[in-house]
Every structure is written in C-alpha cells, then in structure tokens.
Amino acid sequence: MVREQRLYAVQERTLLDNALELAAPMNHGSIATAISGGWSATEALLLRGDDESEEGRGVLAADRMAALTACSWPRPELTTLSYAHAPEETDVLSKKMANLGEESTNRDRAQLVAGWIHSGNSLVLPNASDRAAEERVKRLLTNPSGTLMEAKKHMVSAMRRLYRHRNLVLHGGATHLETLSMTLRTVTPLLGAGLDRIAHAAIVQGQPLQNSRQRPNYV
Q1: pLDDT given at position 212
Q2: CA-closest candidate to residue 67, choices 194, 215, 208
C-alpha cells in the first residue's frame, strides 16, 4: 500500500479495509485480540458464503492462506538476495541488475537472480542468513513443486494452529495460554505476507473487493 501510494487513499470502504482493520492488533494489542483479529481477517477475505469442506470452513480458510503465502514466498526471497549480492568486483549479475530500467520491478530482479543461481553460479553474500536463503532457493530451483509443497505444509500447520487458538480464545475464553504467544510469533509474518499479496491484487491488478460477494479466487 505504501509502494502504490494508497496508504492514505480515502475512498469507498472495501472488504480489504475491513480485513486490515481486523488484523491491526497483530502489530499492537493484546495477544488474544491479535489472534482473533488475525483469524477474522483471514475468514473475511478467503471464505465465501457457499464454501464447504469436510474438515470445516475454518480449515479451508487456513489452507487457502497457506497456499497463497507459499506461492508468494520465492519472489521476495529472490528479491532480498538480489540486494544482498555484494561481489568485490562487478560481475555479470551486478551489471545486469544495474542495467534494469526505471520501469523494472522486483520480479525482474528476482528473475535475474534465479537465472544466475540456476546456471550454477553462486552469490557473494556477507551474512549467514542470506547464505541460508540462497540454499533454500537452490532447492527450490532444483525441485520447484516438491519444495513449494514442503513450504506449504509448514504454513498450513501454522495457519491451522491460528484457527484452533482463535477457537480457544473466542469459544473457551482462554486468553492466557502459553501457546498463544508462540502461535502469534509464528503466524504473524505469514499472515502479513498473505494480506500483502491480496492488497497487491486489489490495488495493482484491480481485483474487486467491495463486499463479501466479490471475493476474487486468489488460490
């Protein structure tokens, strides 16, 4: 929303606005409120009135958010690596990234890095976390489907845990469980990434989000 200069846009209120308001306590507020608000935002955006699932509508929403987040993971991982690459002397990759025009996007940078790694080249990375990210990308490029499915499996576990803890909070009044903080710590960046992708689709791709009958098919 900041990048697209829409943070302070005052227009007709949309479903996305409502969902972001519900999720706001995940940044500040009590843990119980953050858990319930984050889950409400998920359901509001990713469930239709006629959705059905043998495992329950909540599980369906959790799995959809997990799939959305898993699919969006490779691009930011590659973008981060593109800025972390720091060879002592300018190499081919650095030259290509320097030649990207003003109209280029993060996806363009990500594609250059993916092509560089896929060709058997290595990045020059100053810290261990970036080198670990490079290893993840190597596994992804070697086995895209398997790696994404593995990532999705972990994200499904996290999102379903959010759903279960929301039920404990709202239906059981369990506001001081020790596992609430652990759940929130794990799921907040994942849910944030999913909401970011939904906001991008709504703003840049023009997906309608005016009311509950206009949910796009994100997943």
Answers
A1: 43
A2: 194
Identify the pLDDT of residue 114. 96
Asked if residue 81 has pLDDT above 50, the reply is: yes
- Is residue 77 pLDDT above 50, yes or no? yes
Contact 44, 15 (CB under 8 A): yes
Structure tokens at 70: 């898993």
